[in-house]
Amino acid sequence: MFRRISTKWTLAVLVAVAVPFIGFSTWVDREVSQRLADDSVRFHLLSTATDLADQLDTEIRERWQDLEYLAGIPLVSWYAAGDAEDRGSWEATVQDLFDRLVRLSGAHSIVTAVDANGEILIANRFGSHGAPHDSLSLDGGISDQPWFEELMREGRAALGFGTLQDLLGVESDERPYVGLAVRLEGPGEDLPAGAVIGLMHTDRLQGWVEDFGVRRLGSDGGQTTEDLYSSSYAWIWGSDADTIVAHPTRRLVGQKVSELESGSLIPLVEAARRGPWGMYPDYVFRGVQKKAAFKHLTSVDGGGLGWVVGVGVDYGDIYAPVAAVSETLLLATLVGLFLAAVLSFMVARRTLQPILELERHTRRIAGGELEARLESKRQDELGDLARSFDRMTEDLSRSRSRLVRAEKDAAWREMARQVAHEIKNPLTPISLSISLLRRARAEGSPEADSIQERTLDMIERQVAAMREIASDFHAFAGHHIEPEPVEVGELLDEVLELTHAWARELDVEVVREGEGGCVLADGGELRRALLNLVSNALEAMDGMDERKRLIVRVGIAGERVEVLLSDTGPGLDTEQEAHLFDPYFTTRSSGTGLGLAIVRRIVGDLGGTVTLTNGPEGKGAIARVEMPRHRR
Question: Which long-range contacts (CB under 8 A, 24 or more apart) does 214-219 make?
Answer without folding.
Answer: 216/44, 216/48, 217/47, 217/48, 217/51, 217/52, 217/55, 219/47, 219/51
